[in-house]
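Quick one: structure tokens for this chain, please?
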Amino acid sequence: MDWEFRVLNYIKLHFKNSFMDFIMPVFSMPGTIVALWGLITLISLIIKKHRPFGITMLLNLIISAVNCSLIIKPIVRRLRPYVMNDTINLIVRPEIDYSFPSGHTFFAFSAATICFIYNKAFGTAMYIVAFSIAFSRLYLYVHYPTDVLFGIIFGILTAIEVYYLEKYFLCDRVPLKDRKTVYFLRKTKAAE
């Protein structure tokens, strides 16, 4: 754990400035995260041709929330770095839940991965946002590097799992003749 504090202290020492103190909390605000992924999901659900993406994204966000906040965090129960190093002056409010994994990072990378699966260019842009969110968690001293690393890993794996489960249960289980009549099914080569 000492190396993790060295990383956090290095970031605090070498990246801290007034601009970063302003922008990093913006990337970490729960409202920003909910608004971004929620808006993308809502718009996709409303627009018929994007509905398959919207449904996958919605399932992904629900499963990510359950996996991260209701399963992993309560099991691991890791205290946050600012609790262990109380000499740090936080520029954001202390968080009330556990540290491992980073939920912000988990959601950001799971959502960005779904975006990337459906559209490489949009997904790449969302990965840049996700990396900014992940870095903000380190800059703000609210997560350890391993919290963020495993948030990335768990987020990507959850998105891939959701994509294939949704594809298996919703696409592959519907008879070929009915696939075109179910609005939320992806176009597949078999259905064309």
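Residues 2-174 form a domain with the Vanadium-containing Chloroperoxidase; domain 2 fold (CATH 1.10.606.20).
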